[in-house]
Amino acid sequence: MSEFPTETHTPRPLTVGSLFSGIGGLELGLERAGFKVIWQCERDPYARKVLAKHWPNIPCYDDVRTLNASTVERPDVLCGGFPCQDISSAGKGAGLAGERSGLWWEFFRLIRDLGPKYALLENVAALTYRGLGDILGYLSEIGYDTEWSELSACALGAPHVRRRLFIMAYPARVDGQNRLGERRGYQTTDEQAQRSEYTQCWKDAPSGSPRSAHGVPNRMDRNRCVGNAVAPPVAEFVARRLLQIHRERVISS
User: Fold this and answer.
1) How far apart are CA 93 and CA 91, in angstroms?
2) Helix or strand or coil: residue 185?
3) Which pLDDT score is estimated for 16?
4) What sign does the CA torsion over 48, 97, 72, 76 have?
5) What is the number of alpha carbons within 13 Å of residue 114 lying toward its C-beta?
6) How far apart are CA 114 and CA 73, in angstroms?
7) Strand 60-61 relative to strand 77-80: parallel, antiparallel, unpaired?
8) Among 7, 56, 99, 107, which residue's CB has the most CB atoms within a 10 Å radius?
9) Residue from 61, 48, 52 nearest 17 by CA
10) Which pLDDT does position 245 carry in this prediction?
11) Please, is 232 exposed, middle or buried when counting C-beta atoms within 10 Å of its C-beta (0-12, 13-18, 19+)?
12) Per the residue annotation, which of 41, 79, 84, 201 is the catalytic one?
């Protein structure tokens, strides 16, 4: 028998602060991967009711513009899918200068002021040509390296395509060595296989979904919130990649 007792060390889960939370699809995926949500921020009244039901014991703030380092706890991960209306191909293309998608700058302010270990951003795929360069540039200016990938909900089992861009950011290594830059714009073997499923997924997707609000309580609110939500399986996939990055950084530090 060993002279010293064997200790089992369980690392604490990485904590999450969520902006533009919606109904919590991103948080649900993060929790499935082992993260711990400590606060959320969402303005929509119906979405806030959904969040209160599933996360009743954590703070939920109603305006991202009022948050700062003195009003919220610093999380390990700051995440959010900021508004897409000015970025989406269905909009007018104002991009990050738009009134709604311009809330990205509040997200950026909080990354800069809170200094999380990681930031996780989500938006529509059109962000690649309507603001991605600016986002990467400004994150670099405050010392964050980034990697990004476009993922589809149907590639992870959902009956719809829902292509979304995910960006992960983390502080650059001080020594300038092995900053994981080789993974910028990463595409794993699994993702390559998933992308090959796009066409078949599109063919197999249901031709439509019920749109009528007549006689169904909160149908319009539900449709809108579900339509804006991040698919939890995709969020979990991204969260596990984030954990992989975290382990690599811990080992190399």
Assistant:
1) 6
2) coil
3) 98
4) positive
5) 28
6) 9
7) unpaired
8) 107
9) 61
10) 93
11) buried
12) 84
Looking at the chain, how many residues does it have?
Answer: 253
Question: For the chain, which residues make up each domain, given as ranges?
Answer: 15-204+218-252
DSSP helix/strand/coil, 139? helix
3-state DSSP assignment of residue 127: helix
Q: Is 84 a catalytic residue?
A: yes
Query: Which comes out higher in pLDDT, residue 196 or 167?
Result: 167
Tokens 């319009």 appear where? 220
CATH class of 15-204+218-252: alpha beta
**pLDDT at residue 181 tops 80:** no
User: Looking at residue 233, what DSSP letter applies?
Assistant: H
Q: Whole-angstrom Cα distance, residue 24 to residue 20? A: 9
Residue position matching structure tokens 């698919």:
231
Contact 149, 112 (CB under 8 A): no
What whole-number distance in Å separates Cα of residue 226 and Cα of residue 195? 23
pTM, two decimal places: 0.80
Whole-Å CA distances, 31 to 65, 72, 190, 233: 26, 20, 22, 11
User: Quick one: pLDDT band at residue 11, thresholds 50, 70, 90?
Assistant: confident
Whether 204 has a pLDDT exceeding 90, the answer reads no
